[in-house]
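Appendix B. Chain record.
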Amino acid sequence: MSTKSPEPEVPVRRIDRILAFSALGLAAASIICFFAIIIGTAVGMQQKDFGAGVWPFVAAIPYWGLPLAFVMIIVLLTMSFIRKGRAASRP
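C-alpha coordinates predicted for this chain:
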Protein backbone atom coordinates (compact mmCIF):
# COMPACT_ATOMS: atom_id res chain seq x y z
CA MET A 1 0.00 0.00 0.00
CA SER A 2 1.42 3.34 -0.98
CA THR A 3 0.87 6.60 0.78
CA LYS A 4 1.16 10.07 -0.66
CA SER A 5 4.35 11.86 0.19
CA PRO A 6 3.97 15.05 2.22
CA GLU A 7 5.93 17.00 -0.40
CA PRO A 8 3.92 18.62 -3.18
CA GLU A 9 4.32 17.29 -6.71
CA VAL A 10 6.45 19.61 -8.82
CA PRO A 11 5.53 19.70 -12.52
CA VAL A 12 8.25 19.04 -15.06
CA ARG A 13 8.94 22.10 -17.16
CA ARG A 14 9.64 22.19 -20.89
CA ILE A 15 13.24 23.34 -20.40
CA ASP A 16 13.88 20.32 -18.17
CA ARG A 17 12.66 17.97 -20.87
CA ILE A 18 14.71 19.75 -23.53
CA LEU A 19 17.87 19.54 -21.41
CA ALA A 20 17.28 15.89 -20.54
CA PHE A 21 16.60 14.68 -24.06
CA SER A 22 19.31 16.75 -25.69
CA ALA A 23 21.88 15.55 -23.14
CA LEU A 24 20.78 11.96 -23.76
CA GLY A 25 20.93 12.40 -27.53
CA LEU A 26 24.31 14.09 -27.43
CA ALA A 27 25.78 11.40 -25.19
CA ALA A 28 24.36 8.65 -27.40
CA ALA A 29 25.74 10.30 -30.56
CA SER A 30 29.13 10.66 -28.87
CA ILE A 31 29.25 6.99 -27.93
CA ILE A 32 28.19 5.92 -31.43
CA CYS A 33 30.88 8.11 -33.01
CA PHE A 34 33.45 6.80 -30.54
CA PHE A 35 32.68 3.23 -31.59
CA ALA A 36 32.77 4.28 -35.26
CA ILE A 37 36.33 5.52 -34.75
CA ILE A 38 37.29 2.29 -32.99
CA ILE A 39 35.77 0.19 -35.77
CA GLY A 40 37.43 2.33 -38.44
CA THR A 41 40.79 1.84 -36.78
CA ALA A 42 40.24 -1.91 -36.41
CA VAL A 43 39.30 -2.24 -40.08
CA GLY A 44 42.66 -0.80 -41.04
CA MET A 45 42.18 2.88 -41.67
CA GLN A 46 45.38 4.85 -41.34
CA GLN A 47 45.79 8.03 -39.31
CA LYS A 48 45.87 10.15 -42.47
CA ASP A 49 42.48 8.73 -43.56
CA PHE A 50 40.79 10.21 -40.48
CA GLY A 51 41.73 13.74 -41.60
CA ALA A 52 39.52 13.73 -44.69
CA GLY A 53 35.83 13.52 -45.42
CA VAL A 54 33.38 13.29 -42.54
CA TRP A 55 35.89 11.83 -40.07
CA PRO A 56 36.99 15.13 -38.47
CA PHE A 57 33.34 15.83 -37.63
CA VAL A 58 32.87 12.28 -36.31
CA ALA A 59 35.97 12.68 -34.15
CA ALA A 60 34.82 16.07 -32.81
CA ILE A 61 31.46 14.79 -31.56
CA PRO A 62 32.88 12.64 -28.72
CA TYR A 63 35.53 15.26 -27.98
CA TRP A 64 33.00 18.05 -27.39
CA GLY A 65 29.74 16.12 -26.97
CA LEU A 66 30.43 14.11 -23.83
CA PRO A 67 31.65 17.07 -21.73
CA LEU A 68 28.75 19.18 -22.98
CA ALA A 69 26.25 16.42 -22.13
CA PHE A 70 27.79 16.17 -18.65
CA VAL A 71 27.42 19.92 -18.11
CA MET A 72 23.82 19.77 -19.31
CA ILE A 73 23.03 17.00 -16.82
CA ILE A 74 24.62 18.98 -13.99
CA VAL A 75 22.55 22.05 -14.97
CA LEU A 76 19.41 19.91 -15.10
CA LEU A 77 20.06 18.47 -11.63
CA THR A 78 20.79 21.92 -10.20
CA MET A 79 17.61 23.37 -11.66
CA SER A 80 15.61 20.42 -10.34
CA PHE A 81 17.01 20.74 -6.81
CA ILE A 82 16.32 24.48 -6.75
CA ARG A 83 12.78 24.02 -8.04
CA LYS A 84 11.99 21.25 -5.54
CA GLY A 85 13.50 23.28 -2.70
CA ARG A 86 11.36 26.27 -3.56
CA ALA A 87 8.26 24.09 -3.82
CA ALA A 88 8.93 22.52 -0.43
CA SER A 89 9.37 25.89 1.28
CA ARG A 90 6.00 27.18 0.06
CA PRO A 91 3.16 26.93 2.56
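Further analysis of this model is presented in Appendix C.
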